[in-house]
């Protein structure tokens, strides 16, 4: 078995990135994390990845003439790492069609809702405002439509009395860290 080479895109804290890095330490895991790319130089996740001995890079979209040039440069960085699979892990930019098509079928994202419910931002607050009795997270393929690609795995959590966006988000995050490595395992195995 050849382990699939994975590049992770982040914008911030990187806790899902850390979950993928931890899972990939198992000798029988079918993927290895070879690089972490952030669109924010100050993303705390970059420090964590570098401490793990993983290649890191940051590219600010504002420094580029256009979104296409920014995303073409991201692809160049990912290709320099010889990436097979791209994992979005809290990458908070909408990606253009060219970039999405370049990696289609090999790029996945984690989203903090039970898609197709609550695409976009502030998912926990919106679920609470609706009086939802359950909430959760989804790992899905990335397609040009925002949060619209085919789901790979979902996990559900109950909404509890007195929940705040923070308490609900913390409950969902535990499940994110469980299903993201599992979904990456499924994709990497299917590409063998
Ligand atoms: C996670 O909850 C992830 O699901 C969410 O951002 C957080 C990033 O946290 N992603 C999105 O909302 C994407 N639309 P992390 O940096 O600690 O993984």
Topology of this structure?
Layout: E1 4-10, H1 15-23, E2 31-38, H2 44-51, E3 55-58, H3 67-80, E4 85-88, H4 97-102, E5 107-111, H5 123-129, E6 134-141, E7 151-158, H6 165-190
Parallel strand pairs: 1-2, 1-4, 2-3, 4-5
Antiparallel strand pairs: 5-6, 6-7
Helix pairs in contact: 1-6
Bound molecules: glycinamide ribonucleotide.
Word description of this protein:
- The longest helix is centred in the last third of the chain and has 26 residues, at 165-190.
- The protein has six helices and seven strands, in the order βαβαβαβαβαββα.
- The termini are close together.
- It has one domain: Rossmann fold (3-Layer(aba) Sandwich).
- It has helices at 15-23, 44-51, 67-80, 97-102, 123-129, 165-190, and strands spanning 4-10, 31-38, 55-58, 85-88, 107-111, 134-141, 151-158.
- With 192 residues, the protein is of the alpha/beta class.
- It has a seven-stranded mixed beta sheet, with helices on both faces.
- Helix 1 (15-23) runs parallel beside helix 6 (165-190).
- Residues 10, 12-16, 89-90, 110-112, 173, 176 line the site of glycinamide ribonucleotide (GAR).
